[in-house]
């Protein structure tokens, strides 16, 4: 049977880290996605959800979106250390919910235009990503000059495709 061309991508992170801003930034430049020769033309389904509330229903919802997704972006805000501290538990939950482990994942430190208010160093993000064995991008949904936002989305999609190819 032909494989589905869809990539289901879920974006997680504390409320206010910039998930919707990143998704809008990426989608409004979606021509890059459509014409990227390494990716081909694909459908992309996106979901993004906050991870701040810990009621039973919220947790169940989060887990069901984790089961739904093929690939994941975990976002923190470089000006909010609490959002960075959310990352490791979120990744543990992802590993518990998704089996087999080692899911396609990218870590994004957003709002790097606000360097004067930085609470999380670049090297801390790099170290955490190395521990989680995933790619890491610092970017800004508001001032995405180098295209790092699109690159983060592309990387997780490429990772999904790599995993599907070896299945
Ligand atoms: P969400 O709750 O994670 O979806 O966060 P939003 O996308 O709604 O963003 C929360 C706030 O942060 C909004 O006021 C955004 O304008 C702002 N924001 C998002 N990304 C950036 C960024 O890269 N730089 C700056 N300076 N503000 C951002």
TrEMBL record:
The domain of life for this entry's organism is Eukaryota
Name recorded for this polypeptide: small monomeric GTPase
Q: Which organism is it from?
A: Gadus morhua
Q: Which UniProt keywords apply?
A: GTP-binding, Hydrolase, Nucleotide-binding
Q: Which Pfam families match?
A: Ras (PF00071)
Tell me where the transmembrane regions lie: none
Q: Which reaction does it catalyse?
A: GTP + H2O = GDP + phosphate + H(+)
The UniProt entry's sequence similarity note says: Belongs to the small GTPase superfamily. Ras family.
């Amino acid at each position: 049977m032909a494989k589905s061309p869809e990539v289901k991508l879920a974006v997680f992170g504390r409320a206010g880290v910039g998930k919707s801003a990143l998704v809008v930034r990426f989608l409004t430049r979606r021509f890059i996605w459509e014409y990227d020769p390494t990716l081909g033309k694909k459908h992309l389904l996106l979901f993004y959800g906050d991870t701040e509330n810990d009621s039973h229903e919220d947790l169940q919802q989060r887990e069901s979106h984790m089961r739904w997704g093929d690939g994941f972006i975990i976002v923190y805000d470089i000006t909010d250390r609490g959002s960075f501290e959310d990352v490791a538990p979120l990744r543990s939950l992802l590993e518990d919910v998704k089996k087999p482990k080692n899911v396609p994942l990218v870590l994004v430190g957003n709002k790097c235009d606000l360097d004067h208010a930085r609470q999380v160093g670049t090297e801390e993000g790099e170290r955490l990503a190395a521990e989680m064995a995933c790619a890491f991008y610092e970017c800004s949904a508001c001032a995405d000059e180098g295209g790092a936002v699109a690159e983060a989305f592309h990387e997780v999609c490429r990772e999904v495709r790599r995993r599907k190819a070896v299945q």
